[in-house]
């Protein structure tokens, strides 16, 4: 199995506090990894340090075998634009653009595909996420769930190798969360590697593997295997994960 991302001896400090301490982690191609831990345990710091949004203090981050921890800022921006997609708790869509224009923008910025191809990709993503009906709407005139679907489309417009998600359902109600997680599972089942930070056992139960951060280290991991959406198995996964989280003191 191919390794998409490998983290070697990663440490991250802010002034005099060590947030991450000698993290080693391999994420396989097509894997869905969830990162959990108490508030302040360093989950977002880990996500940002491995996705080039922030720099590790020491250690290496290898993307398909190439060290990206020390590339210059321009190269890192290009890697983020072309190889990585990002979804956060809030959609951060641009207010003066329509849903569709927000989605195609990173496609035009990347300058690797023709206008026609970018538009075709946008149409495919809008249909896949069920928001084609609001494509030309102002972002102030759609629901929170539709905004988050649009954020997922925008993250996928350049067909990234990895989708990084930081609390992607944190601002959504439970039925909208389920719909957004169904989309993320579909994207993953089509081959995109997903790395997601979440507080929620229900959301993390969609992942293949969950790691638990404590004291700046990976304290434990739980293998859940591929999610198949079947109701009974979903509740078994949540149950197994909740018991494991209880053991971690969560
Ligand atoms: N830019 C920064 N400067 C200084 N300290 C920071 C910075 N970013 C994060 N920290 C500190 O690093 C620690 C880990 O923060 P981080 O946001 O990664 O935790 P988290 O597990 O994602 O928390 P939460 O679940 O509350 O979002 C915290 O103590 C935080 O105060």
From TrEMBL:
PROSITE patterns assigned: ABC_TRANSPORTER_1, ABC_TRANSPORTER_2
UniProt-recorded Gene Ontology molecular function terms: ATP binding; ATP hydrolysis activity; transmembrane transporter activity
SUPFAM superfamilies named in the record: P-loop containing nucleoside triphosphate hydrolases
Residue ranges of every copy of the ABC transporter domain listed in the record: 5-240
GO cellular component terms listed in the entry, alphabetical order: membrane protein complex; plasma membrane
Keywords: ATP-binding, Nucleotide-binding, Transport
Record flagged with keyword Heme: no
InterPro entries registered for this protein in UniProt: AAA+_ATPase, ABC_transporter-like_ATP-bd, ABC_transporter-like_CS, ABC_transpr_LolD-like, MacB-like_ATP-bd, P-loop_NTPase
Lineage top rank: taxon: Bacteria
Name of protein: ABC transporter ATP-binding protein
The species this protein was found in: Variimorphobacter saccharofermentans
């Amino acid at each position: 199995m191919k390794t998409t991302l490998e983290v070697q001896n990663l440490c991250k400090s802010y002034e005099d506090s060590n947030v991450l301490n000698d993290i080693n982690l391999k994420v396989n191609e097509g894997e869905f990894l969830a990162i959990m831990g108490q508030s302040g345990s360093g989950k977002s710091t880990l996500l940002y340090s491995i996705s080039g949004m922030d720099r590790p203090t020491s250690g290496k981050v290898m993307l398909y075998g190439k060290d990206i921890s020390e590339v210059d800022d321009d190269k890192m921006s290009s890697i983020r634009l072309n190889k990585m997609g990002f979804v956060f708790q809030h959609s951060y869509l641009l207010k003066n653009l329509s849903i569709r224009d927000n989605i195609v923008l990173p496609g035009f910025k990347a300058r690797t595909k023709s206008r026609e191809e970018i538009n075709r990709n946008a149409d495919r993503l809008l249909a896949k996420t069920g928001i084609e009906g609001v494509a030309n709407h102002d972002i102030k005139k759609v629901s929170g769930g539709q905004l988050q679907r649009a954020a997922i489309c925008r993250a996928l417009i350049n067909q990234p190798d990895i989708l990084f998600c930081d609390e992607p359902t944190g601002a959504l109600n439970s039925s909208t969360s389920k719909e957004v997680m169904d989309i993320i599972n579909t994207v993953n089942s089509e081959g995109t590697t997903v790395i997601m930070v979440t507080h929620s056992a229900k959301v993390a139960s969609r992942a293949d593997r969950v790691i638990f951060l404590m004291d700046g280290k990976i304290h434990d991991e739980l293998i859940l295997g591929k999610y198949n959406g079947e109701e009974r198995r979903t509740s078994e996964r949540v149950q197994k994960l909740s018991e494991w989280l209880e053991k971690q003191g969560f």
